[in-house]
Design goal:
- The chain has one domain.
- About 75% of the residues lie in helices and about 0% in strands.
- It is elongated, with a radius of gyration of 20 Å.
Length: about 120
């Protein structure tokens, strides 16, 4: 059973690492978000923040799934200090994600409203 669990963990980690790598490569090749909506920026100036926020989201996600979670596998049984360090890192990255997601809400809501179809009465 232990070997099967290890095999599943290894397979999941490989798949996750490949997806993260693909996401990072794809994102780096995209035009900036603000360039796609340059005509809207004068109306919604907070759109200029989104590219930076998306980069931070990608970095935090890569840290969680590329470094922190795989780090748990390498910890020896009973190494409480290493577990504590990884949990602290995980908590910091999760907090970073929450802050960035809060930052995204206002500009995206404004963008949705900008492109919403007019309601006819």
């Amino acid at each position: 059973m232990q070997a099967l669990n290890q095999e599943r963990w290894d397979h999941a980690l490989i798949t996750l690492t490949e997806c993260l790598s693909y996401w990072q490569q794809s994102y780096s090749q995209l035009a900036l978000f603000v360039n796609h909506f340059a005509h809207v920026v004068p109306t919604i100036p907070t759109l200029t923040q989104l590219d930076g926020v998306f980069n931070i989201l990608l970095d935090s996600t890569a840290a969680i799934f590329g470094d922190i979670l795989p780090g748990f596998q390498a910890i020896s049984v009973g190494d409480d200090e290493a577990v504590t360090t990884l949990l602290f890192d995980l908590m910091q990255q999760a907090d970073q994600l929450l802050v960035q997601l809060d930052t995204i809400l206002e500009p995206l809501q404004a963008l949705i409203e900008y492109f919403a179809l007019p309601v006819s009465r």
